[in-house]
């Protein structure tokens, strides 16, 4: 059934790529550090449970929850930078998004296991063309579990040494974003309130955590 659903999604001409992912199992706090247990999965296994027929047949029996990371991005001048997703993407088409993606077990590893800092830095470089040399500071804000429990998201906040206009002039990933948006730091709370319905759940949650930590 997974292969059939995948084939149907491909025929619908949405942008899909069956990459490797990490499946979230559980998490807890150990010595003031966030500990997350994972195992391997694929994007096909993420797509299938969203199918109505699959849900009817396997309700309560299959719970593939991928682990993702993402970040709010702050320019050196204090503005937040967000992306507008392409309208032909499989997941949250056309919505406003942070720089985010799935943790890749083939790339995001250190000697101690999955490296979520490496994952979010990689995503920012792939989607925003911002490398390590242009990252001034990075903070892990916490873990988010959307109400529909389709994925688990570890939120970060990254401050760049580039100004917002410099960031927006870079060649961003056209396979992911149609455009970038700059939000003045003093307007972030009102922006979240007014644009909430146009944001992906992880973007909304990431900004809310950013505000909660008082990083403005």
The general outline is globular
Question: What's the count of strands?
Answer: 11
**Tally of helical segments:** 7
| Main sheet characteristics | 7 strands, mixed
Low-confidence segments, ≥5 residues, pLDDT <50? none
Distance between the termini: 47 Å
User: Helical percent range?
Assistant: 25-40%
Structure write-up:
- This protein has 216 residues and is an alpha+beta fold.
- The protein has one domain (2-212): Nucleoside Triphosphate Pyrophosphohydrolase (Alpha-Beta Complex).
- Helix content is 28%, strand content 33%.
- The mean pLDDT is 89.
Key traits:
216 residues, alpha+beta, Nucleoside Triphosphate Pyrophosphohydrolase, seven-stranded mixed sheet, two-stranded antiparallel sheet
Question: Can you summarize this structure?
Answer:
The protein has 216 residues and is of the alpha+beta class. The chain has helices at residues 2-11, 43-47, 52-58, 116-128, 164-168, 188-195, 201-212, and strands spanning 20-30, 33-42, 67-74, 80-85, 96-97, 99-102, 109-110, 113-114, 135-144, 152-160, 177-183.
Please render the helix and strand layout as text.
Blueprint: H1 2-11, E1 20-30, E2 33-42, H2 43-47, H3 52-58, E3 67-74, E4 80-85, E5 96-97, E6 99-102, E7 109-110, E8 113-114, H4 116-128, E9 135-144, E10 152-160, H5 164-168, E11 177-183, H6 188-195, H7 201-212
Parallel strand pairs: 3-10
Antiparallel strand pairs: 1-2, 3-4, 3-6, 4-5, 4-11, 7-8, 9-10
